[in-house]
Amino acid sequence: MRASVYSKFVLYSVPLFVILSALGLFLSAEYATRNALDEVTARIGSHAGRVAGLISRSQLEAGRGGAPDLISTLLSDRAVQCAEIRLSASGAAVIAAPRGVGCLGQESAHKLELPLADPRGATLVVRFTTDEVDEERRARREFTLLVMAFGFVLATATTAFGFRRAVGRPLGSLLSAIRQTSATGRYYLVPEGGRDEFGVVAKAFNAMQRQLQEKSEHLSVALGQLQTQNERFNAALANMPHGLCMFDLHKRLVVCNARYTEMYGLPEHLTCPSTPLLDILQFRGEAGNAPVHLDTYTNQHEELARRADTTAFNCKLEDGRTIRISHRPMSDGGYVAAHEDITEIVRVEAQISYMAHHDTLTDLPNRLLFRKKLEGALMQVRRNAQLGVLYLDLDQFKAVNDTLGHPIGDALLQAVAERLRGCVRDTDTVARFGGDEFAIVQVGTEQPYHTTELAQRIIERLSAPYDLNGHHVVIGVSVGIALAPNDGIDPDHLLKAADMALYRAKADGRGTFRYFEPDMDAKMQARRVLELDLRKALLNGEFEVYYQPLINIAEDRVSCFEALLRWNHPLRGQLLPDDFISLAEEIGLISQIGAWVLRQAAMDAAEWLDDIRLAVNLSSAQFKGLGLVQDVVVALEASGLPASRLELEITETVMLHDTGNTLAILHKLRELGVRISMDDFGTGYSSLSYLRKFPFDKIKIDRSFIGDLPGGGDAVAIIKAISGLGASLGMTTTAEGVENWAQLDKLRLEGCTEVQGYLFSPARPASQLADLLSYALGSKGRGHMGPYRAV
């Protein structure tokens, strides 16, 4: 602040002092010169006045001798140049002049005229100069100028010094800060002075610099973010899988990315801004990738430009591609469009849609597409048309699939599908519902004549032999038929009716066809009711185990009891296994029921004599998992029954299903100590091969062979062969269905080990087994059989 005050003092006071001093000196010199001039004039005038007073008229008239001398005294003054007396009348007549020198031709700066006492008007004229005064004046002026020059130089230097301190330095700092800021981009500050103008300017400048720096930092951050965003945008634009383009109000290109250029093979000049859309479309037309419907495409863009929302549509190109275009209008009348090549997606979607509506193995329509076709056909039925629905199920397909393997089974299904295609017209629909089930919709024919003809043709062609990879395969087909509108016009109702007709065809011996009849629905409803009751029977404790004895012929005693299930239905009374076991297998309840039978029978058998075994029948459905082994273990542990007293009976059909898994389960059961019996031996396909695969403990001869005894040579031969086979393999042979003494005698003769049948006892509940356990066959003959018959 002191420097600022001093600078101001120097800047303003010193120059003013110098100027005032120079002015005073100048005025002083002028004043002194004026005084000197006045002194000379006064001196000469005083002297001239004295001389004029001394000159009298007499002297003027007396020869003029004395007047010149008086006038000459005036010349003693160096300032006087000349003096003379003149007559005022003539103006030029010189009366007297000293030394004969008048003032003629003398032009001095000053002239003094004094009147004399002469009637003629004579005057004393004195001319004098002020050279001394002028020289003194010039000297003083030169000195004054010198002093003023020195003062000016001093004032200038002082002013420059003060200006530099008061103005130059702050201004230089300000300019330096501006230059550095401009050169480096950094915001420099200047020293802030006092409270003078430059201090205010410095503070304002620094405040401005700080604000600019703060805004610059914010701007730098914003620019950095913008740059990052732009880099991301450019990266996204360049690497996005979709082609992106932007057009203005006049359909001129604003920007597009590389993918857009690549999709349509555009040259570089067509990707420049302001390129008309029509030029791009024209090039694409020449290149063969323009929209198929170019006029519609252009009109569609114009229509979409007037909308405010984003719209997407598919565009088919001439080269076969499909482009998905997402069109978004902009506020200025232009639009942004994203082009996505969805050719592969469309192909995959079409393939998925095809696969969703067709069977992958046979390439036939599946249930979904069949229903759509059926619904469409039923629309014609409502217009007085007719149609037939045929429901097909292959006979013996499961046996082929299980014995020859799934590859042969698949080949068989494909061959069946091909034959079905040859049985129908182009207007008909053949579908595969899954497994070995097929369905056909026959439209536009005379019913039921043509449907009957089609069913017969299908049965004939599908029953013809198949040659599949060297395997000779013969199957059959059962057909159920429902007609519209006679049997209904609802798709589900028609399929249900055809299914019920198919069920009847299979029940009637397979290889045939049946039309739907109203009473079939009643039977199916009854079956449904039975199914619901069966699901509740186990929880309600409605099942009961009955037991039928097996008699050892050689030892004349009861050696085993076979467990037979009974269902005490609350409304229908007691039902035999034939009434509900197949249904239990179909609905998946057989495993739960079988596990219960094992537990209950084992608990009952634990109360019998130690040498009496328990035989329990198993369903093929129980072999579909590992639960069977666990069920057996639980039953034995819960009852305490030794595993050696438990016999599990299986039929030959069990061996047809996944033989490897079945044998594995049988071996695990054998490891527990359980005995395994082959039930209904001789009625299957490959009984002897099964005896080689697994060492059964017992063979049970089916009752169909026993009914022909004691006659029937074929039956006797078969029984003899089975008994001999069992004896040679170390297996017990049991004959089922023995109902008379003649049969018993023949079986004893042929070497059977055990017999079972009504001759001895029907199946009884556990509470009635006490009497049977107290009897045994006597070794002395037939007379001892009486008690068994009486029981």
Task: Furnish the topology, listing elements before pairings.
Layout: H1 2-54, H2 57-61, H3 66-74, E1 80-87, E2 94-96, E3 110-115, E4 122-128, H4 131-184, H5 197-239, E5 243-247, E6 253-256, H6 258-264, H7 277-287, H8 294-305, E7 311-316, E8 322-329, E9 335-341, H9 343-357, H10 367-381, E10 387-395, H11 397-404, H12 406-423, E11 429-434, E12 437-443, H13 449-463, E13 466-468, E14 471-473, E15 476-484, H14 491-507, E16 513-515, H15 518-540, E17 543-552, E18 557-569, E19 573-575, H16 581-587, H17 590-605, E20 613-617, H18 627-639, E21 646-651, H19 652-656, H20 659-672, E22 675-681, H21 687-693, E23 698-701, H22 703-706, H23 713-729, E24 732-735, H24 741-749, E25 754-755, E26 764-765, H25 770-773, H26 786-790
Parallel strand pairs: 15-16, 18-20, 20-21, 21-22, 22-23, 23-24, 24-25
Antiparallel strand pairs: 1-2, 1-4, 3-4, 5-6, 5-9, 7-8, 8-9, 10-12, 10-15, 11-12, 13-14, 17-18, 17-25, 17-26, 18-19
Helix pairs in contact: 1-3, 1-4, 4-5, 11-12, 12-13, 17-18, 18-20
